[in-house]
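User: Hello, can you help with two protein structures?

Assistant: Certainly.
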Amino acid sequence: MSSISPPNRLFFVFLVLYGLFLIQPVMADDVPPELQGSGRPVPRFVTIDTNKAYVRTGPAPRYPVKLVYKKIGLPVEITQEFDVWRKIKDIDGDEGWINKALLSDKRGVIIRSAQGKDKTQAPVDLREEGRMQARIIARLESGVVGRLGKCTENWCQITSGGYQGWVQRNYLWGLYPKEEIK
């Protein structure tokens, strides 16, 4: 036997139906802009902007820390956005979520070594100008991080370790093959 009397049962059904009309599915257009991300192109490259950046398994502080980056200027690729969180990927392919406050729009690169004739990693030449005949200023080992300047079709200007010069574009990670950097 029901404990709700018929007039109250009718009122209860009315409340339930009314509540269903009030609850509407959230459409993409109804999501507040602050939850949609930045509106900037994805994917894109940015850099780590702190000496200790925690990367998590999901887009919130409640998710466990997966990685810790300890290098300002380290380039990472944003592959997804949610609210204030950015899903990033590093040069090794490791992925995770980081708060946007720990990132900078400044561009950086990582040197990818040239391969020597004996299949060993060879240093990459930093040249005075963006051409093979230009004087070599320094030799950069694989993994060296630099600040990205402008790029031509085959060369990019970088600053690293107090040196500024040009490196062949194919030895750099942190930019797209046809991306224009001015």
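That covers the first. Now for the second protein you mentioned:
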Amino acid sequence: MWFPKARPKQKGALTAMAKRGPKTRRATRDYTRGRTLSLMKQVQYRTFVRLEGALQHLGVSAVQYRVLAAIQRKRYVSSAELARIFDVRPQTMFKQIAALEARALIKRHVSEANKRVLEMELTAEGEALLKSCAQVAAAVEKELFSEFTDGELAMYSEFMLRMIASARSTPRARGGD
């Protein structure tokens, strides 16, 4: 497997960039194909593993925490809607929902608007667990971003939001098309 050569660290480069503000022109650096995406995946994986480990004592996975948070944000959401939100197959989401329902963290009921749809909401136990999970997640986030200045963190958040918007507006690549 090929890895690009490590570049020497430029101390304070991101801090200086945060002070200057965003540029109006696009970055011109040649990131060897896939390198930036590889870094993004490494960050995603390592933060997921860190959060997963921190939540373990609460008996909930990082995915289940995210599902509980989504249900709280969007009351009376259906399993199909959650599958679309998380970009997973309905069967995959059903497994997560079943596990949460078995622990009495959520309850499902027939939708008033569409009798064929089961909507979900958090139980009191689910609300309490979500509150504990949020505290754990905040501590993990604080630890992970402890080396960032407020400006760097704001810039990083803005970059991620732009990436999300870009990924949503870019058609999915299809094999052979």
